[in-house]
Write a structure and sequence with these properties.
Arc Repressor Mutant, subunit A; 106 residues; 3 strands; homodimer; 53% helix; globular; alpha+beta
């Protein structure tokens, strides 16, 4: 699975990747867990193919790294790359998402 | 021109609005200026209709407020609303955009 290098990450693509509620939710769960999670560990209210699409958008934007462990596709947040390129941005985005959830409910 | 109320602002829509290079540039110029600017003060390398579209997306997401002063359409950043709902987010986004520009060039 192709991944952009750190140098190829673009702010616009990262923001686009996070502009969808399901993708934002995936990123929040990965950030909260702090470790890799398999696609099947996310209980998203969407079809399998939609879910696959969302993970791919996140991977192609450089927000997550995907790799196979046996037959499971694992997903990890590229926090180090994001923090290096855009210090403070990911935390600000996660805080904004948490605040919105508190305001509006899940 | 309809504007979402502060309560109607959504993080996902704000991120979508900022996920385009031209729209990000508009927001950066408004933030740097600190005051309202007319559409014609932005020298964007796009057609007039594309430019109008970008301003509308920003307005509908609640990122900018537009109003007519005489025949000029003026644009102002909704910094107070954004900072109230998502403290620190706008500044983190502006900093990330500035950092990317320094890294890649204009």
């Amino acid at each position: 699975m192709p991944h952009p290098t750190r140098d190829d990450l673009r702010l616009e693509a990262v923001l686009h990747a996070l502009s969808d509620p399901m993708r934002l939710r995936i990123v929040r769960e990965l950030a909260a867990d702090g470790d890799e999670l398999s696609c099947s560990q996310f209980e998203l209210p969407v079809t399998k193919s939609t879910s696959t699409h969302h993970f791919r958008v996140l991977r192609e934007a450089g927000v997550i790294r995907q790799n196979y462990r046996g037959t499971a596709k694992m997903n990890g947040l590229r926090r180090e790359d994001l923090d290096d390129l855009f210090p403070g941005l990911l935390d600000a985005l996660l805080a904004a998402a948490a605040r919105q959830e508190a305001r509006l409910g899940g």
